[in-house]
Amino acid sequence: MSLGFSVEALIPRARGGGALRMGLVRVPEAEWLTPAADLGARAAVFAAAPDCVQVLPEAEAAVEEIAEVLARRHLQNRHPGESRDPFASTLAGGAGPEQPMDPGFRRDDGLEGRCVPVADALRTAAAGLWEDLCILTPDASGQYRLTAAALAFPTDWHLAEKLGQALAPIHAPIHGYADQLAAGVDHFFATLQPGPIFGRTNWFVVASDAWRYLPQDDPQVRFAHVTADNAGETLFVRCERQTLRRLPQSEAVLFTIGIHVEPLARLSSGAVARVAQSVAGIGTGEHERRAAPFYAEALTRYAERRNRSPELVA
């Protein structure tokens, strides 16, 4: 079963309450990244918020590798007859090795030889995709840390607060992570091999369709206007389509996040019912973190109305 590239397709793959789990599925190379998207919103963010791209020194080799891989993938999309594996070597056929670049600089497209600062190389790579890019590298103790990211469309987190942190503190706000999930996540990162791509999805019910979701108001105020009558237009399901893969040269882990948002009214009655059931099944602590007490009743009543009248879309 594919992850898909829409809220409707992603919801069945999301956790529906209960114990935390990674919920990983294998993702084919051809379905690694969103195939077509309007990138204007991302370009605007990267232009207006330069701090949404940050790179620590230990991630520079991985950034260089990613920039080259994505440039190669772009060329393959333009020439479909070539290899579909963007990590395949471009040095086949007797071509000589690439010449080293100036220290501290990376090529902006991986192929033409122009040099730009490493953060700009990551920004250019991410601006050509729908997905945000996060790079995690192991420290001396083997703990994976977030050492670089291009984060245009965050879901209620700030890159400056997470950069340099290990997996456990990054996920500390998630209730139950340390007891239920931390050991499994650490094992996955330690044993992930180059080649396979794994995907998962996460979801949130929010009161905005903004791609860049960084609410500052109190959730009681944020959801105050939501009722069972207007929930179809005032509540949105925000899905993160996440993938993980090991980079073969730098051995860093690349974590991508693709954001998909739809109002309840545009989802099927079955999808709305599943979201309502998932919200009802969220445990204490996580229920509050997701601000569910401020919209759960309206969501449940709206889902019940949709179940009685499937044609209802508002």
Describe the overall structure.
With 314 residues, the chain is of the alpha+beta class. It has one domain. It is 32% helix and 18% strand. The protein has helices at 7-10, 40-48, 60-78, 118-127, 159-162, 167-170, 177-180, 182-191, 219-222, 231-234, 269-281, 286-289, 296-308, and strands at residues 25-26, 53-55, 105-107, 115-117, 132-138, 144-150, 198-206, 236-246, 253-263. The strands form 2 sheets. A 7-stranded antiparallel sheet has the order 1-7-8-9-5-6-2. Strands 3-4 form a two-stranded antiparallel ribbon. Helix 3 (60-78) runs parallel beside helix 4 and helix 11 runs antiparallel to helix 13 (296-308).
Structural class: alpha+beta
**What count of structural domains?**
1
Query: Strand order of the main beta sheet, please?
Result: 1-7-8-9-5-6-2
* N-to-C CA distance: 30 Å
For the largest beta-sheet, the strand count, sense and barrel status come to: 7 strands, antiparallel
| Annotation field: number of helices | 13
Q: What is the chain-wise order of helices and strands?
A: HEHEHEEHEEHHHHEHHEEHHH
Radius of gyration: 21 Å
Q: Low-confidence segments, ≥5 residues, pLDDT <50?
A: 90-114
SS elements, strand count: 9
- Report the β-strand fraction as a percent range: 15-25%
Indicate the mean pLDDT: 87
Shape: globular
Helical content class? 25-40%
